[in-house]
Every structure is written in C-alpha cells, then in structure tokens.
C-alpha cells in the first residue's frame, strides 16, 4: 500500500481517476488538475451511515458512479488543506472496499500540482459508471466496545491509543492512556506535504507510536484521524486501526475520559 503519491507521479499518467474534494467554487474559479472531477467533502460525509460518519454504502456507490469512477479505478484525491479532507475521501474508499493498492492521496495537496503543472477551470463532464463497493472487504475499523476493552492495555503501555487532535482538545478530555499527536505535526508547513521519513519516525517513536504495537487512532469525527492513518500505512505500520466513532460517539455513550 502506497497511500501518498507526488504531483510528478500523477503528471502524464493515463487512466487515473483524479478527485478534487474542495468546494465547487474553488474547483470552478481557482482551477483544478486537468481531468479532475469535483466531489466536495460534504457529498461523502454522513451524520448517519455505516460505522459512524461513513456515508451509506448505496450513497457512496451512487456518488462514485455519477463521478465516473470505475470499480477498479486507480484513484488520486486532493484538497488545498494539506490533505486532511482528501484523506477522508481516500479512507472512505478503503473502508468501503476499494482496492488499497489503487487509492491515493496527493502529497502536498493542490499547491504541489499548481507549482509545477498546468491547471484548468474547465468543468469535467464524467461518463457515469456502475461503481460497486465490496461489503466483504476487511477494514481496520474498531467499535466502542473494542476500544473500551483496550483501555487497560493502553494504560499499561501494551496498546497505543493515539489522539490526533490539538493540544487544547486533548487537555480537555481524552481516552485514558492515550498519547497525543496533532495530525498537523507530520506535515511540512512550507511544502504542505509529509515531512521527511526520518523526521516522521523520530516524531512517532518519541510519542511511543511504534510499528510493533497495536495502534488505534481517534479524533472527534474521524476526519483528522484519516490523514494520520494514511501516514502510518505509508511508513509501513501494519497494526493500525481506526475508531470511526471517535470522541463524538465515546461521549454520547458515556465512555470514560481522562484530562490534564
């Protein structure tokens, strides 16, 4: 699995379904990658759906079908916010069964393309497909009960619970035993892409987030956690899971919180 691809990797590559998840006005007026279809973030977000904030499967299939994305397509998604919204699109595709080898995030967001390659304001009129997700695909999701059962192991240091929110959010309340890693810490502010691999590994190991341990990620509504999940997979972490309900569900169900 190689979740992140560069603008140079994408440039000139045929047969890739490029998805721009920015708002429609940005896509239309600022410009976009030639051939990219516009699928704004709100269109694949659901307050009530499968596993918390995922859209219902039938809605996801309809959305990709009308966007011209084939079931076996190689997909690259991007935004202009360092990848956090596009990461949610990528992870949604993964969780609903798209081939993990064929769905990617553009490293460095739209700006990485804009710096070196041509953009356009021409709207793409995609040819509809009949996209089919895979309901039997294995996913890295864990539920409330699973996370609740992992708390003793997390507090003992045997499992790593990672809170991907900001410092102040973590201080106000987090899962017992969790470590904090703001998702933005892995991003280079200048390039808007990932920091060098050695810096990332040092950062993660310094927080106790190591490949050998089972790692469970959460935030508030599973957007920020999506980016961190892709980063860990890019670095070869195999034992990474997502608590999709995150703290929104945790609080609603009366889960225990720690604060500091």
TrEMBL record:
The keyword Nucleotide-binding does not apply. Residues 12-122, 155-259 form the Rhodanese domain. It comes from Halolamina salifodinae. It is an enzyme of class 2 (transferase). Residues 116-137 are annotated as: Disordered. SUPFAM superfamilies: Rhodanese/Cell cycle control phosphatase. The lineage of its organism: Archaea, Methanobacteriati, Methanobacteriota, Stenosarchaea group, Halobacteria. Keywords: Repeat, Transferase. One of its GO terms (molecular function) is 3-mercaptopyruvate sulfurtransferase activity. InterPro entries: Rhodanese-like_dom (IPR001763), Rhodanese-like_dom_sf (IPR036873), Thiosulfate_sulfurtransferase (IPR051126), Thiosulphate_STrfase_CS (IPR001307). Signal peptide: none annotated. Residues 121-130 have a biased composition (Low complexity). Coiled coil: none annotated. Its EC number is 2.8.1.1, 2.8.1.2. This is Thiosulfate/3-mercaptopyruvate sulfurtransferase. The keyword Transferase applies.
